[in-house]
Amino acid sequence: MMASLRGRLYAGLAAIILLTGLAAGGTTFRWAYHEAIELQDAVLLQIGALAVNHRIQTGPVMEHGIDTEARVIIEELGQSPPDVSASVPRLPDELPDGLQVVERGNGSWRILVHTRPDGSRVAVSQSTDYRDEIAHDIALRSVLPLAALIPCLMLLVGVVIRYSFRPVSRLAAQLDAKETDHLANLPAEGMPNELLPFIASINRLLERIGAMFEQQRRFIADAAHELRTPVTALSLQAENLDRIELPQDGHDRVAALKAGIRRTAHLLEQLLALAKYETARTPQAPRTSFDNIAKAVVADFMPRAQARAIDLGFEHIDHVSVDIDGTALAVLVRNLVDNALCHTPDGARVDVALFRDRNHAILRIEDSGPGIPEAELIRVFEPFYRGNWSTGDGTGLGLSIVRRIAETFGGSVVLENIVAPNRGGLRVKLRIPVSRIGEPTLS
């Protein structure tokens, strides 16, 4: 069953055009055929009138100039016509006057018989095979323009349908281009009247979804904020337990408790960052030194990298400034470096590069981990998504926060697997527009 409205409309109109064209073509063919036969009968009548008045008789058949099949034979009944060959026997004398079809020799002939006032009779005849061939050709030529018009009409109908459905295609493209945090109403200006109720329904749906997202943001932010205080208190109590003399089993349990509290605190910080940067971009952001922030973040992760014998460092670094506040930029870089370290095995390396490419600052981070399956390279940006390949104690929010911050400030982030003979892993490319000139630099 055809699901496309455009396809069904085109198929219906094409069928109507085709059936109408066939009916019109058949009618035109029959009309033109009969008109050609009547025209040839009129020619026979005119020749017959000349033969009656002037006693014209056809002579021997010419070898050149006139096709034998096209000849018109004029003969006096009761006499042997000099041009009638053995294959065309003489006509019987008792033929009635008028137009008639008579079998003569190997075919049929259209014959006009007329009696003069003196009683003599004359016959004018022509082969019906030739007459039918001429009539068929004339009728076919009259149908050919219509046959050529049908495919042109079908093509024109396809173009008109495509043009008519262009607003629907634009509407679909606008819906596909919308991000979950940019749920502005669809424009109704310039849209066909038939689409206005549909657009109004979609806009109401977008408003409800936007309200739901805003409620979700507030809930995440409020819940994370309220949980920070008890988590901090638990962390302090766990630290106090370290000062008490406990058996080794007790110290192991306290260590596990502290690790769980750290993971919970990290999750809360990530939730707060996600809720903060899901809001719209601030009108003006301070000019920040990207390279200074990147150096500070990498320096913070150095002890962790050295503890695991991971070679963490810069391949290349340029002085680049961007219009992002330092806190957001630090969160962005920290999440990327932390993600790379989490998926890099001990003794491997993580390479960081920062350089300028025209109007963008490019932060590139390459790890030595297992990479990400190609089918999941897009899904990893979803909040809390962690594939089966993922290791460590991550929250599944880091890359989602990175993309949110990058898009908030007009940037983008791309993931790709490293395919090299002597190295694998994941390559992250972060693009951020460089700073506008003439603003103070903050680091």
Describe the structure in your own words.
The protein is α+β, with helices and mostly antiparallel strands and 443 residues long. It has three domains: 5-60 and 68-162, no CATH class; 193-276, Signal transduction histidine kinase, dimerisation/phosphotransfer (DHp) domain (Helix Hairpins), CATH 1.10.287; 283-442, Heat Shock Protein 90, CATH 3.30.565.10. It is built from eight helices and twelve strands. It has helices spanning 5-54, 128-164, 166-177, 196-241, 248-277, 290-307, 326-342, 398-408, and strands at residues 73-76, 98-104, 107-115, 121-127, 287-289, 311-317, 321-322, 349-357, 360-366, 412-417, 426-433, 441-442. Strands 6-8-9-11-10 form a five-stranded mixed beta sheet, covered by helices on one side. Strands 1-4-3-2 form a four-stranded antiparallel beta sheet. It has a three-stranded mixed beta sheet with strand order 7-5-12. Helix 4 runs antiparallel to helix 5 (248-277), helix 6 runs parallel beside helix 7 and helix 7 (326-342) packs antiparallel against helix 8. The protein is rod-shaped and about 155 Å long. The relative contact order is 0.07. Residues 61-65 and 438-443 have low confidence and may be disordered.
